[in-house]
Amino acid sequence: MIKGIMFDLDNTLIDFMKMKKISCEEAISAMIGAGLPLEKEKALKILFDIYQEVGMEDKTIFQKFLKKTLGKIDWRILGNGIAAYRRVHTSFYEPYPHVITTLYNLKMKNIKLAIVSDAPRLKVWIRLASMKIDHFFDVVVTNDDSKVLKPNPLPFKMALKQLKLKPKQCLMVGDNIERDINGAKKLGIKTCFAKYGNPKIKKSGADCEIGDVKELLDIV
Predict the structure, then answer these.
(1) Looking at 1-151, which runs of residues are DSSP E strands?
(2) pLDDT tens column, 72-119
(3) First to last CA, the chain
(4) Same domain assignment for residues 184 and 125
(5) Contacts of 6 (CB under 8 A, 6+ apart)
(6) Are both 143 and 170 inside the same structural domain?
(7) Residue 91: how many CB atoms within 10 A of its CB?
């Protein structure tokens, strides 16, 4: 019997990549307006290529971008880019459809809820608070708590310990096969693949799959 559910955050409860794409598009447009001598599509490709190299949470991504494209940091261009990114980024935090009602109904079923995320602690809490869903979670484990990334077992073990549950009593819901699904399965945690967060994946290897988060109510 499932007594607890662990959730990945980005692309499981929040459409992180959509948020990132829209924020970066606005940032690039602002930088071009401030003098960046590149076409928007080319600039975006370069930016996301850098993201692939350094990770989606890199704090100095635009500095790296300008050094690669201009050979130096133009502070006027950088300032305009960061200002535009932050303006859009902070206003876009919205959960996927049916997330709030699903979390509410899971709590009504006395299911313990946890977040297990690779993102930094402050970013996780800002995202949860912005979506007004932070109060649903009994446990929140971030990269600052575990100091390692999934699929390392430590974040899952920390969540299990705080939930006071055994692996077989928990379900891990996530969009990343290696980090979320395979990482949890190694500990004997039941797994659920969030297809809506990573639709390109055809075979997840998870115990179950959902196309909408509300389907969790039928599983538990």
Answers:
(1) 4-7, 112-116, 139-141
(2) 999 999 999 999 999 988 778 889 999 999 999 999 999 999 999 999
(3) 8
(4) yes
(5) 114, 115, 116, 156, 159, 170, 171, 172, 173, 184, 189
(6) yes
(7) 12
Predicted TM-score (pTM) of the model is 0.85
Structural contact between residues 212 and 190, judged by C-beta atoms closer than 8 angstroms? no
CA distances in angstroms from 107 to 91, 103, 112, 192, listed in the order given: 27, 6, 7, 18
Find the radius of gyration of the CA atoms of the chain: 19
Judge if 130 and 21 occupy the same domain: no
For position 10, which CATH number holds? Answer: 3.40.50.1000
Is residue 117 domain-shared with residue 188, that is, in the same domain?
yes
Per-residue pLDDT at 13 exceeds 80: yes
Q: How far apart are CA 98 and CA 16, in angstroms?
A: 16
